[in-house]
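User: I'm curious whether this sequence folds into something compact or stays loose and floppy. Could you predict its structure so I can see for myself?
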Amino acid sequence: MKIKTGVLINFSRRHIELRHLASCFAIVLCSTVALADSVQERELIKASMQGEIATVKSLIEKGIPANSATEKGLTPLMLSALQGHSEVVKYLLSKKADVNAKDNSGTTSLMAASKRGNLEIVQLLVDARADLNAQSSKGLTALSMAAMDGHLNVVELLASKGVDLNVKAQSGLTPLGMALLAGHVKVVEFLKSRNAQ
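Assistant: Here's the prediction. I'll summarize afterward.
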């Protein structure tokens, strides 16, 4: 793929902006739990983030909502998906946690798991009918995040489920463009084999 120098510089700047956005997202999710409506809701959010399945079950059984959220819109499902706690994710899904809930930046649990490259959790969320083409406030999708960070197995799974391969972020970059600029050769080769633009 031949790209003119001026275009490449422009793409690089956009890529840096996207990487910054993704980094900020990770920092926010891993930071101290913000305010929720009650002490027990905060406990549920913290336990979900830390993978404390026994505490999560106890609080849910006491009637604490599975869709409790921080002031930034982060839910137990989002945090457990990001941190790779598959047992917590399974349990929350069984308790009707909203698989398509978005935080204040428009990020979903599927996007969080895809960015981390956690294939098991991505599969769980896909099976739970997560919106594969949901976009964040910056136009990023689960595929965008996986491609940006070079998670080939996640990219392959999402592609096999019919995700939009050519969706553009606000920067104008597609998942292929992001993978290309990040130097993820295998992801680039795979997306090209699927006629991604």
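Summary: The domain at 1-31+105-197 is CATH 1.25.40.20 (Serine Threonine Protein Phosphatase 5, Tetratricopeptide repeat). The chain has eleven helices and no strands.
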